[in-house]
Amino acid sequence: MSDSEGPPPASPIPATGTRAAAASGADAAAEPQHRFTYEGDTADLWPMTLKIALLNLVTLFFYRFWGRTRVRQYLWGRTSLLGDRFVYTGTGKEMFLGFVIVFFVVLLPIFAASAYVVLYWSEDMGAQMAFFYGLGAVTYFLFFVASYRALRYRLSRTNWRGIRGNQTGSAVVYALKAFGWLLLVPLTMGLLYPVQSVSLTGTRLKNAWFGDRQFAFESEGRSGLLYGPYLRAWLGFIFKPFGIVILALLVIALALWALGIDLPGRFAGAREGEPVQLDLGFGLFLVIWGLVALGWLRTYTRYKARELAIMADWVRFGRLRFRFDADHNQLFRLVFGNILITALTLGFGRPFAQNRMVRFIARHLTVVGVPDLDTLGQSTGRAPGMGEGLADAFDAGSI
Amino acid sequence: MRAPSRDGRTRVHGSFFDGVTAAAKPVTVSVLGTGIQIYGEGGVSCGNWPYGGMRTAPGVAPETELNLLHRDHPDARLVITDAGVLGQIRTIAPQVLPREERQHGLAHRLALIALIIAILAGLVFVVIPQGAHVIAGAIPVDWETAWGKSFRTRLSASAKVCGNRRGADALEQLAAKLLATEAARAGGYDIDITVIEAKAQNAFATLGGQIVLFSDLIEKMEGPDELAGVLAHEIAHVVARHPLTHAIEALAATTLAAMFGGGGDMGGSAAGVGGALAVSAYSRAMEAEADAIAQNILAQARISPNGLADFFARLKRTETVTSGGALALFDSHPDLAERAARLRDDTGSTAPALGPREWRQLKTICG
Q1: What is the C-alpha R_g of chain A?
Q2: How far is A378 from chain B (nearest CA, A)?
Q3: Which is it for strands B54-56 and B161-162: parallel, antiparallel or unpaired?
């Protein structure tokens, strides 16, 4: 789950209070609450998914732009707010053209440069290292540019009640910021992660528009609120029974490694081209890392669920506020389930995962307040002419 | 809801979004032969949408809601709640409506899944290997040589390369015997052998005729013929251009895996890694071909193939002892015993590949 994914941020706004304030807290007293409805059905997804998979294979994946568009049309078209449906107006052709341009302008030059360095500087160690580290940095940078541009494309192709969204701001500035955080967060051993999250989410949200109205994100001086959940999540990772088992296994594995004790069967024999083999020692290694990954995911969702709830509270759209109410178990089930669906179907089953994601958002996101739709005008920003080429190249954004 | 109008046509109600503000305008519409006429409050015309350029909102089933868009009014939307209009449009202008999606039965779905798996298998087991073979044949050896040197450069930076004078001389002597054979020269490669200090019994050949031996492997060898056999096997991979073919296969497989696995999420990455792992080892056909060529090299160098056979047999034994159960399923060399048997030849009489003194020196090449 990357930060760039998901449908356009809780965009629009209701007309008439369809549902009066439900239970909730005293603060929401008389304010109307509006939920998104999602009517997606796996029965519809089967024929769509199978057809897309077949066409993808037959066209060596050139169909993917059109396939993705079909899935989005479905996800958007089955989602409504205040009884009005979202319409996805992007096309496969736009995405294909975006990809073609990125292929010739970005990917091909990078590939050619790599080939040149490998072939002509083959014995210059320093030059090779410098080039490949540089390439790694450029790749991360382009990934961030791509995810921001993809957001702009999706918002500009989202229509609700005749109004489009848009994303202003510079993708390059966003990418520079994200890249800076990418270096800073590990340097502080992850301590700055919540601040980073607030900063990047803020940049995306404050530049998000629906029609001629801009989203606001009231985060000033509030990042500290995230540290409670952040520390609790990490402590939970260490002190919950599951975490203790993982830590114990890790300690045992490290001790064995430090003492130079090889588990039987590790590197049992010489084989060509296969530095690592699957046997007892390696099996144990896989099990431990699988558990660590699972524990990490649990920790991540434990924190993320709180973060989403807290940050949703800071979002404003005109007079509207937002509430996100998924708990960490629900978020974990969504994320873990989607990983399984995608991995076990080699990615072909992704529409089912996207379907779960949109249903999850619709179920847990509430719009609070009286919307003012008569004065919400059309977006004045220029929408991008082409779609997501860079994002496709870097696999950014899963919806 | 229907209301008779002044002009006698039936009018039905709907919501019109003009694409200028988000306000919903209550409208009445008339379905005409050429298009839909839209009236606002007081019967004022809000426009006429001809059928040409009109379509239903993608992803919205018209049976659930008739949600119309028009090419000439890109942002505007017309939502008609009257069920009768759908029937009228279906008669007058069916091209406005999306084609009906057929729902498939379970058998149909399973057949499609089987077809998808078959195409995928065809790609992975036939199209990619055959294609890689053809492409590899078209690439000049020179191009590979440069890559091989680059690899050698990076290897010497990341691992300790062994080669004391005596050990290197002994290795040189053994390699020269093998490399002088016609079978070893067939590929046109300038073969380069590197020994690195590493705690794993391994040896591999990579692009541009680079062969790497791990020190641990040499230490565990029980005689010069065994090492000669393993070297001949690696030289055979080079001669048959397996590293290049395999690199192309891996590139194609990773690209494909990125395309269907990709999506920037963890599930997609896992699928991608799985796809790449699927092609991470040489195929059995490649191993068999390398064994056959190795047999020729050894015969022409007058070295017994039994060294290689012994080595395979020993591998087989360690393997049965150490990896049992489910993990054995992943084994890519289940046919070691068979390969050993095919190599074994007790008819000819040959001298050891190296004298005892040279062999001792070679064993301590990392010392």
Answers
A1: 24
A2: 5
A3: unpaired
Q: How confident is the model at residue B301 (pLDDT cuts 50, 70, 90)?
A: very high
Spatial neighbors of A148 by CB under 8 A, at least 6 apart, are: A4, A167, A169, A171, A174, A175, A204
Q: What is the ipTM score, two decimals?
A: 0.79
DSSP-derived 3-state class of residue A249: helix
Question: Half-sphere exposure of B58 toward its Cβ, with a 13 Å CA cutoff?
Answer: 18
Q: Is A67 left (phi over 0), alpha (psi -120 to 50) or beta?
A: alpha
User: What is the C-alpha to C-alpha distance for residues A38 and B166, in angstroms, rounded to an integer?
Assistant: 76
Least confident of A89-103, A263-277, A323-337: A263-277
The neighbour count for residue A187, using CB atoms within 10 Å, is: 9
Nearest-CA distance from A73 to chain B in Å? 5
Which of B75, B261, B332 is facing A346, going by the closest CB pair?
B261
**Nearest CA-CA distance, residue A152 and chain B, Å:** 17
**Residue type (1 letter), A235:** L
Residues of chain A with Cβ-Cβ distance to B279 below 8 Å are: none
Kindly determine whether residue A123 and residue B60, on different chains, have CB atoms separated by under 8 Å: no
Query: Which residue has better confidence, A156 or B346?
Result: A156
Task: Please give the Cα distance from A251 to A266 (Å, whole number).
Answer: 19
CA A193 remoteness from chain centre: 16
pLDDT at A92 over 80: yes
Nearest in space to B200 (alpha carbons), one of B220, B217, B218: B217
Residue A4, pLDDT > 50, answer no
Indicate the average pLDDT of chain A: 82
- Of the partner residues B60, B266, B318, the one whose CB lies closest to the CB of residue A339: B266
Cβ within 8 Å, pair B116-A54: yes
* pLDDT, tens only, A373-386: 889 999 887 767 66
The pLDDT-based confidence of B272 (bands split at 50, 70, 90) is low
State how far residue B8 is from chain A, nearest Cα, in angstroms. Answer: 31
Of the residues B68, B153, B266, B315, the best mutation for testing chain A's interface (the one with the most A CB atoms within 10 Å of its CB) is: B266
Interchain proximity A395–B263, CB inside 8 Å: yes
- The pLDDT confidence band at residue A262, using thresholds 50, 70 and 90, is low
Confidence of residue A53 (pLDDT cuts 50, 70, 90): very high
Q: Are A395 and B268 inside 8 Å of each other by CB?
A: yes
CB < 8 Å to B256, chain A = 60-61
Place of tokens 């169909």: A63
Residues B208 and B192: their CA atoms lie apart, in Å, by 9
pLDDT tens digits, residue range A110-135? Answer: 888 888 887 777 667 777 788 888 88
B200: tokens are 């794993």
Asked whether B286 and B240 are in contact (CB, 8 A), the reply is yes
- List Cα–Cα distances, B54 to B28, B35, B51, B71, B268, in angstroms: 18, 9, 5, 6, 38
**pLDDT, tens only, B107-144:** 988 999 999 999 988 988 889 889 999 999 998 888 88
pLDDT digits (tens, 9 = 90+) for B4-63: 444 545 677 889 999 999 999 999 999 999 999 999 888 888 889 999 999 999 999 998
Q: Could you tell me if residue A60 is left (phi over 0), alpha (psi between -120 and 50 degrees) or otherwise beta?
A: left
Best mutation target among B149, B158, B213, B265 (most A Cβ atoms within 10 Å) is: B265
Q: How far apart, in Å, are the Cα atoms of B135 and each of A6, A233, B122, B129, B197? A: 40, 52, 18, 10, 35
Closest approach of chain B CAs to the CA of A221, in angstroms?
31
Count of CB atoms within 10 A of residue A290's CB? 11
Q: Which residues of B touch A374 (CB under 8 A)?
A: 21-23
Q: How far apart are CA A73 and CA A7, in angstroms?
A: 12
Return d(Cα A340, Cα A345) in angstroms, integer. Answer: 8
